[in-house]
Amino acid sequence: MQRLKTVCLRRLGGNRATEVKFGRWLRNKKVKITELIEQSLQKTASLTEGMHVLAIQDTTELNYQAHAQRTNGLGTVGNGTDKGLFLHPMLTLNADTGACLGLSGLKVWARHRVEGRTYWTLPIEEKESYRWLEVAEQAKKTLSKVAITTIIADRESDIYEEWARIPDAKTHLLTRVCRDRALAGSGFLYSTVDQWPVQDVYSIDVPARPKKRSAHQAKLALRFGRVTIKRPSKCKGTNLPESIDLTVVDVRELPESVVGDEEPIHWRLFTTHQAETVEQAKHIVGWYRLRWLIEQLFRILKKQGLDLEASQLEHADSLMKLAVLAVQVAVTSLQLVSSRNSQTEQAVSDVFNQKEISLLRVLLGQYEGRTQSQKNPYDSKQLAWAAWIIARIGGWKGYKSESAPGPITMLRGLREFAILYKGWTLQNEMCA
User: Fold this and answer.
1) Which residue would you say has higher pLDDT here, 185 or 294?
2) What is the pTM of this model?
3) Are residues 3 and 144 in the same domain?
4) What's 254's domain CATH number?
């Protein structure tokens, strides 16, 4: 899968006999999902020692309704009727450079709800939302040798039990606020933060989000400070504190930079990090902005990329194993995207072996132009050097005036590179 960048068993097998072997392997009960996940996390652990890492978690659904009638073991997805699975990865980045290092946590499951069960009365361990804590704990074990871990998530992860249990001496949380929480003493979060003075106004470049937001430069008003949130009355956990001290960083887009009738940016962020200066608060906002990379990971998995939901395997366990393998393939494409920033300085050997690097050197001459603007600007030891070549193979023209290559372009380039590599290897074997 890593070599061919596909999850289609027919393409992976190359012939009927090998396709059947792959299918049998995925159905084999001795092939454990937990072991596949553990193996996927080991490489990340070896790359992160001594670093400050950002561990970004989120959930996506895999919808298999198109062939649900012949697939056993699926649960319902977000709309409550279609059949499918859920995937919850923890994507890990170098906090200083933004380089994508791999996965530090992963969970895949089928949702089977029990009718009449009052979920809000249950302890967190018996709720589906426990995945946010479960995968965070998994990541803490994977990243046991890092200097600092900052776990980042969107609003669904704003859970009191998570704030109480996950942070420790080297583990921080950074989560977008979900609700207007009651504060210790008196008052509520939103009205309190609204009264804080603006500490700074600065601009950021906002990428386009189809049907939601145009690409533009947003002017943001920055507020930050400390609050103490009260334990919710419906919180059923034991040994939980009655209150928790957190930092709030609030950024709001000013009216003059909003495009048309689009919704202005407004992020209220909770974190266990301290923010005593404007620069510290901006760093926190910058870390949160990298959360969009996990959305790119999901995009690679779906129809435009690996098209994981088109798989016609006939049992949920097989589809879960396939999903665990597929997300590792998707991470490779994302590593190339993140390496476009020359500050990452990630080694090319983190993704490509020596034979593949040799072929990349051969191909470089075909894709570089005569002018300096058409030359690969990166050092050959950097992953960005390989990403430039793969993007050119995938159809990117290489001009600075052109949009930077995205994950689908990288995936397309990697697939073409796999074909070239196969032919190049065969030629070398014939000439040996």
Assistant:
1) 294
2) 0.91
3) yes
4) 3.90.350.10
Whether 284 is in a domain gets the answer no
CATH code of the domain in which 380 resides: 1.10.740
Range of the domain at 226: 174-279
Query: What per-residue confidence (pLDDT) applies to 432?
Result: 65
Angle between helices 16-27 and 316-338 (to 10 degrees): 100
Residues 150 and 262 in one domain: no
User: Mind listing the pLDDT tens digit for each residue in 351-409?
Assistant: 899 999 999 999 998 999 888 888 998 999 999 999 999 999 999 988 877 888 888 89
User: Can you give the pLDDT at residue 129?
Assistant: 93
* Structural domain total, the chain: 3
pLDDT at residue number 200: 97
Q: Are residues 421 and 324 in the same domain?
A: no
Q: Are residues 148 and 54 part of one domain?
A: yes
Q: Supply the pLDDT for residue 159.
A: 96
The mean pLDDT value for 168-192 works out to 95
Residue length, the chain?
Answer: 432
Tens-place pLDDT, residues 198-248: 999 999 988 887 777 888 899 999 999 999 999 998 887 778 999 999 999
